[in-house]
Amino acid sequence: MTDHNKQKGVFDAQLDLVPEEPGVYLMRDKSGSILYVGKANSLRQRLRNYFTPNPNVDKRIASMISKIASYDTILCANELEALVLEATLIKKHQSPYNILMRDDKEYPYIRVTLQEPYPRVMKAFRVGDDVEEGARYYGPWLAGDINRALKVLETVFPLRRCSRDLPREIGKERPCLNHHIGRCMAPCADKVSQEDYCSMVQEVCSFLEGRTDELIRRFYSEMKEAADGLDFERAADIREKWHAVLRLREEQRVVDQAGGDRDALALARNGNEVAVAKLEVRGGRVTGCVHVFAQDMGGEDGEYIASFIRERYRAAWQVPREVLVESDLPDEKLLDEFLRQQRGGAVTLRKPVRGQKRALIEMARHNAEKALERRSMSRGSDPRAVTDTLKYLGQLVGLDYPPARIEAYDVSHLGKGDRSGSMVTFVNGRPERSSYRHFSIKGFHGIDDYLSMKEVLTRRLERLDDESFGSRPDLILLDGGRGHVSSCLPLARDHSIELAGMVKDTRHRTRGLVLQTGDTIELLTTSVARDILENETQEDRARRLGLLHLLAAIQDEAHRFALRHNQRKRHTRAMRYDLETIQGVGPARRKKLIETFGSSKNIADATLEEIKAVAGIPDQVAQTIYNHFQGSKADNEGKSP
Fold first, then answer.
1. SS3 for 425?
2. Which is deepest, 46, 128, 138, 429, by most CB within 10 Å?
3. Residue 171: what pLDDT?
4. Residues 167-208: tens digit of each pLDDT
5. What's the pLDDT at 16?
6. Nearest Cα to 81, choosing from 338, 309, 303, 348?
């Protein structure tokens, strides 16, 4: 009898006692540890589905079922209550088969302690549980940006920064120096009423949410009033605050001239992790972008977005009027109801397919991709982990030492005339961008990835002694599989350099390492055989994931760099041939103009007299060229930002 049939026999009798009501279930292993938390509209029906001969679940849950030794259930009044309880229990128990969101701890938040009678503003490195008590978190911010923002807040809003227990300690001590220099209203000495103090705190929240227009108008009015009353010292103080708020608004990108509050949610995946980005738009301006991460456990994109919504919209102030998503969501109607309940008002959950709102989704996805790329590269911050990973890589490719210098190559083509290759360099596991190189493919016509890779590698290896390229590589990695490795292997052997390939799966995620023998070392969780995973030790898993992180970072960087060069070439060519659309300009005159000015941009910036001075360009044609570019500038200036 199989383990699954044994489980079915054990649980059949128990399942008959489970009510057909909404609720939450907790799956446990033999030790009693919670493996998974789920919700259901009918607990009996959902649990029975786990123990059928062919359960209708994804690979992640299928691998968990064999470990189930027992389960618990908690009844709820309805499915919405079950949804909320499920999110709470997942967060509490950190169950390994659930999607668990983690903050990007590299970037801090600004925390406003609204749960306190006299709130404070301070730096925080993660969103805490006090958000459910009323605290608000704004960010994340870059390290330098948050310090500048806090400095502006200290200048504009004289709130307390001490840790005194107010109102219990009011009047027990004299005000500190901050009060005497005008940086604190001294609630500790009862110099300001709680109502007035909290009113200023609300202004801080509006400031951090990007709602600055009213604040700017008020400061301007007060500044003018003080100047008219000849109180120039006060007017100067208000002007400083006015300028600080103006600078903040200027830094915020306008994405909707009509205003409006909305969040755009999108994600990126690299096979090991998922990054979810929430782009926050308030009053039509981008006011922040939050990144969280989760282990990539397979499944659909919508599952991760749904988990983000359940976990991250925990208070009314966090939920905007509209939430944009890029994927179909499981339980979408339930999530819509959940958001309305959290906000205490109407919320629209929308999946845009075109227009400005779709552009916001694309912007959020771009931020998610960059966050994931940065996170992959930052794994090199632990020297011991990097050394272990490089040592493991060296063993796999046949080196007796960790490869300190790795060069990775990729080729890109967007058409027969746009073929290029890239070389990116990683030294001790970190990118060395000064050593990056681009190659234009010139040795043949047409599209052939193998020939392109061989040409790029040949030109690099011919210059091993060229100091401008840097030192000799310990290892060459190719973006490609067996074909790329076998076609380029003779070149590498001629120079006694080890070579391997990096392969992706059907979803363009880094999957594994192709050795010179043609064998592939599988690294991606969904590619590794289930029996291997179950017998994998913690040390083996750490080595596999460490190498996967490194290869994903290298492969993504090589691809990005190759594609950027190709796009630049295409743009340059398009600009050059745009000259020939001007009446009176053909290939010969285009060539003369380019030779004289060096680029189309310089031609566009040239004066009429400078264009007329080019040999072979008649005055009438020079006037036409000048008018063409001046018209283009006028069109661009007339466009909305």
1. strand
2. 429
3. 84
4. 888 888 888 888 877 788 889 988 889 998 998 898 888 878
5. 80
6. 338
Task: Classify the phi-psi angles of 519: left when phi > 0, otherwise alpha if psi is within -120 to 50, otherwise beta.
Answer: beta
Q: Residue 75: which pLDDT band, with cuts at 50, 70 and 90?
A: very high
Residue 140: both structure tokens together: 């994340």
Determine the average pLDDT of the residues in 386-412.
91
Domain 382-571 has CATH 3.30.420.340: yes
Compute the half-sphere exposure of residue 333: CA atoms within 13 Å on the CB side of its CA. 1
The residues, any chain, with a CB within 8 Å of residue 630's CB and separated by 6 or more, are: none
Exposure of 563 by Cβ count < 10 A (0-12 exposed, 13-18 middle, 19+ buried)?
A: middle
With the C-alpha atoms ordered 571, 576, 579, 581, is the resulting torsion angle positive or negative? negative
Residue 94, both tokens:
């950190």
Q: For domain 262-375, give its CATH number from 3.40.50.300, 3.30.420.10, 3.40.50.360, 3.20.20.140.
A: 3.30.420.10
Nearest CA to 24 out of 130, 95, 115 is that of 95
Question: Does CATH number 3.80.10.10 belong to domain 3-98?
Answer: no
399-406: long-range contacts, CB 8 A cutoff, minimum separation 24:
399/474, 399/475, 399/498, 401/474, 403/473, 403/474, 403/475, 403/498, 404/428, 404/474, 405/470, 405/471, 405/472, 405/473, 405/474, 405/475, 406/473, 406/474, 406/475, 406/476, 406/477, 406/554
Whole-number Å distance between alpha carbons of 574 and 566: 12
Checking if the pLDDT of 578 tops 80, the result is: no
Give residue-wise pLDDT tens across range 288-346. Answer: 788 888 888 778 899 999 999 998 898 888 899 999 999 899 999 999 999 999 999 99
Q: Quick one: fold of 582-638?
A: DNA polymerase; domain 1 (1.10.150)
Which position has the token pair 């999530």? 335
Task: Render 536-582 in DSSP notation, one character per residue.
Answer: --HHHHHHHHHHHHHHHHHHHHHHHHHHHHHHHHHHHHHHHHHGGGS
CB contact at 8 A, 240 and 233: no
For residue range 528-539, what is the model confidence (pLDDT) as tens digits? 765 566 677 767
Enumerate residues 6+ apart whose C-beta is below 8 A from 286.
210, 252, 253, 255, 279, 280, 363
Residue with tokens 């903040």: 248
pLDDT at 561: 84
Q: Which two tokens stand for residue 411?
A: 């080729």
**Listed residue (275, 286, 285, 315) closest to 127, CA to CA:** 315
Checking DSSP bridges between strand 34-40 and strand 70-75, what pairing results, if any? unpaired
Structure tokens belonging to residue 15: 């399942």
Per-residue tokens: 583? 């009446």
Amino acid at 436: Y
According to the model, what pLDDT value does residue 236 have?
A: 85
How far apart CA 139 and CA 288 sit, in angstroms, is: 6
Residue 5 has a pLDDT of: 55
108 Cβ contact list (under 8 Å, min separation 6):
123, 124, 125, 139, 140, 141, 143, 146
382-571: same fold as 3-98? Answer: no
> Distances from the Cα of 618 to the Cαs of 576, 578, 588, 592, 621, in angstroms?
20, 19, 13, 12, 5
What pTM was estimated for this model as a whole?
0.58
Parallel/antiparallel/unpaired status of strands 437-440 and 419-427: antiparallel
Six-digit token string for 329: 């969501």
Cross-strand partners of 426: 406, 431
Spatial neighbors of 320 by CB under 8 A, at least 6 apart, are: 261, 262, 263, 280, 281, 282, 347
